[in-house]
Write a structure and sequence with these properties.
This protein is mainly β. The protein has one domain: Glucose Permease (Domain IIA) (Distorted Sandwich), CATH 2.70.70. About 5% of the residues lie in helices and about 40% in strands. The protein has an 8-stranded antiparallel sheet, with no helix packed on it. The two termini are about 25 Å apart.
Length: about 160
């Protein structure tokens, strides 16, 4: 039953996060890196990648592409800060297997940012499992992983985030 003043309560804002790469959605705990698996960097999910590119998971701003092109930082129009970090220890490849397509700036879901050559990367790093994480969790009330253990394509919904 609704209380008299429930009518005035602001409905919490929900944001859908879309897949930035093709692959299988997995839990962050399956990423073989403590900082990601123990959510020290933030919370979200990870993806076991298929061939392709890293694309935008949100509408907003492409903030930064690491010089080695293995990690990309976004800010959604709602102020959520996100990191897509391709694989583990990929920084050590010094850009090998990654090609930057665009520079920082305004971005839409599915915009292509970095192409990657999975065949070049796979044997050179401990894992290609790719965390997709929200780094400013103080803005987040809850995260629901929508496509756990499912194959997704770029632009498929992978998480529902409720803001505080």
């Amino acid at each position: 039953m609704m209380g008299l003043f429930d009518f005035f309560k602001k409905k919490k804002e929900e944001i859908t996060i879309y897949s930035p790469i093709n692959g299988k959605v997995i839990l962050l705990t399956e990423v073989p890196d403590e900082a990601f698996a123990q959510r020290m960097v933030g919370d979200g999910c990870a993806i076991e990648p298929d061939k392709g590119s890293i694309c935008s998971p949100i509408d907003g701003e492409l903030r930064n592409i690491f010089p080695t092109n293995h990690a990309v930082i976004f800010e959604s129009t709602h102020g959520l800060e996100m990191i897509v970090h391709f694989g583990i220890d990929t920084v050590k490849l010094d850009g090998l297997g990654f090609e930057k397509i665009r520079e920082a700036g305004a971005i839409k879901v599915k915009d292509e940012i970095v192409k990657y050559d999975l065949d070049k990367i796979v044997g050179s790093v401990p894992s290609v499992k790719t965390p997709v994480i929200i780094s400013n969790m103080e803005k987040v009330e809850s995260i629901e992983i929508l496509a756990l253990n499912k194959q997704v394509k770029i632009g498929d919904p992978i998480m529902k985030v409720v803001l505080k």
